[in-house]
Amino acid sequence: MDSTLHGNDIEKIVSADRAHVWHHLTQHKPFETGAPRIITEGRGMRVWDQNGKEYLDAVSGGVWTVNVGYGRERIADAVRDQLVQLNYFAGAAGSIPGALFAEKLLTKMPGMSRMYYCNSGSEANEKAFKMVRQIAHKKYGGTKHKILYRARDYHGTTIGCLSAGGQQERNAQYGPFAPGFVEVPHCLEYHKEDQDLGHLSGADYGRAAADAIEAVILREGPETVGALCLEPVTAGGGVIVPPEGYWARVQEICRKYDILLHIDEVVCGVGRTGTWFGYQHYGIEPDFVTMAKGVASGYAAIACLVTTEEVFDMFKAQPDDPLDYFRDISTFGGCTAGPTAALVNMDIIEEEGLLDNTTAMGARLMGNLSALAEKHEVIGDVRGAGLFCGAELVSDRTAKTPVDEKLAAKVVAECGAQGVIIGATNRSVPGYNNTLCFSPALIATEQDIDAITGAVDAALTRVFG
Fold it and tell me: For residue 126, how many other CB atoms are within 10 A of its CB?
């Protein structure tokens, strides 16, 4: 079978896709009469579909992944060379790119010292959950096993990660879930009235939102709570940037009750917010950091769990005990393509000054969205950090009533018709799938940002008048 794609093969490709591929996050009934979209090429900030239509990609591959843009031959060449030398060996042994990437990345993460390789964000979070549970048995007789997670946060698709998932629609129909996972309230100041905190703002609200976590700990019993798992900036739950005062209080609470702090950087990590990691905006000191998407910009599958030396030392304290070490493996954590791509990805971010560019272009994106909010009453709130921004659509600004999610989806579709791909919260929180999402590659220019927001302007006008 000739698997090479030539220009006259596209109908065959579409037919094969329609007949055999099960797409992510997609209802397939429409494909019985229509064609699925096939993305055939990417260069820089742009991709092309099977019909030759060009799109400006404002969501980095659809899910916050292609941080350094498409078509990076330098990464592809490095991966090819490494695969010829050594493509894989199980993670019980090391590899040259695995050692070098761990060393390089950890120079950007003061206080962290150990990296565990795996192949997806979901898996990285599962590894952290397993470590927390094993620590509970090793140190606390199994009692300190509960893992707290936050409403609206998302940590992956496995049953374990969905057990720690704060998005009811993503969880729907997949239960029953694993025991020992407990939800704490969100920290979205825009909807503070939902928490009976409408009388507070700024740092006062931030501290109160964190105090709500302490209330859950006291309710559950501090002796039963082993870890708190949070996104530094909530992604699919509505692009929620924690308010001033929040993170300092969270750190204080974790230390007070001897609770491990797990930061899920699967979306924010490796430059997305203008720092290497989102948590670094807030001066906190995590015990676990998980990452995936932007680590290699999608040029190879890789995810990592990073820990402190203190956590690592807990798993070698009793070498004569056959159960004392972390008895886990990730098959594709032994692939060498991931750390190879990740090394070059980091080099590109450093050499091209992409952290600074993310900060500058993020400010432009936020400014443009704020200007659109002055023009369009339907934009109730604009929020974000770096090139990770959201605009919440409401039918009533005073009441903050979310627009029907079908209207938000229509805005996305209207942008697509103009050749700009944006995102929106999708199957996340019932009644609140109303936030437009923007996460262009870190290479975005002023012209790219203006084109993105120009398309949104036109789409809002067409949908809402």
Answer: 23
* Cα–Cα distance measured from residue 419 to residue 421, given in angstroms and rounded to the nearest whole number: 7
pLDDT in tens, 195-254: 999 999 999 999 999 999 999 999 999 999 999 999 999 999 999 999 999 999 999 999
* CA-derived radius of gyration, the chain: 22
Upstream peptide bond of 179 is cis (omega within 30 degrees of 0):
no
Number of residues assigned to the chain: 465
Provide the strand spans (E) within 156-220: 181-184
Q: Contact at 8 Å (CB) between 324 and 316? A: yes
**Beta bridge partner(s), residue 42:** 47
Task: Decide: 235 and 212 in contact? Cβ < 8 Å.
Answer: no
Largest CA distance in the chain: 71
Residue 387 near residue 442 (C-beta atoms within 8 A)? yes
How far, CA to CA in Å, does 26 sit from each of 30, 58, 214, 395, 426? 10, 20, 39, 27, 11
CA distances from 281 to 215, 233, 312 (A): 26, 10, 25
CA torsion sign, 102 to 292 to 339 to 43? negative
First to last CA, the chain: 52
Say whether pTM exceeds 0.90. Answer: yes
Question: What single-letter DSSP state applies at residue 226?
Answer: E
Tell me the helices (H) and strands (E) count for the chain, helix number first: 13, 16
